[in-house]
Amino acid sequence: MKEVESTKPGYDRAWEHQPLSRDLSFLLARANALSLAAGNAALRNYGLRVRSYPVLALVCDDLRPTQRELADFLRLDPSQIVALIDDLEGRGLVERQQDPRDRRSKVLVPTPEGRLVYAAAHAAVQSEPAGSFAELSAHERDTLTELLRRLAFGDD
Predict the structure, then answer these.
(1) Which pLDDT tens digit goes with each residue over 41-67?
(2) Which of 11, 46, 60, 110 has CB atoms 3.0–4.6 Å from 118's, for a disulfide?
(3) How confident is the model at residue 14, as a pLDDT?
(4) Cα–Cα distance between 15 and 54 in angstroms, integer?
(5) Using an 8 Å Cβ cutoff, are 34 and 131 in contact?
(6) Distance in angstroms (rounded) separating the CA atoms of residues 140 and 104
(7) What is this structure's pTM?
(8) Could you tell me the domains of the chain?
(9) Are 94 and 111 in contact (CB under 8 A)?
(10) Residue 84 — left, alpha, or beta (φ > 0 → left; ψ -120 to 50 → alpha)?
């Protein structure tokens, strides 16, 4: 039996022609896995991962989010947010401060070091915009971004 040559590690290219390869949920999950791997590789030099990067990004945007707001927006369990913030705080990148709107709550603010790390990580991520999406043209990436925004946030 002749082996089908694969440009992708770990599987035979014939798998790409199975019914599953037309299943939208599977394709989104597979594309997500590839994107996560590329994102983590791009962020590695900054001590960040795809899960911690958006936390730092939102904090550096001066939104002064609470942990609950981050959990809701990022669709993560609050315990996952706590762990991510604990790590960023332990590295001196963010601080918890009393929320002036609600003294029982804490908001997150960036430290000067956090702003520097975020700026460098953001530049690295933006410098390789194709990343795992290199197969797509710039127009296709823009289209995909807009479609995913509609799925993620609704059609405003």
Answers:
(1) 889 999 999 999 999 999 999 889 999
(2) 60
(3) 79
(4) 34
(5) no
(6) 46
(7) 0.83
(8) 46-153 (1.10.10.10)
(9) yes
(10) alpha
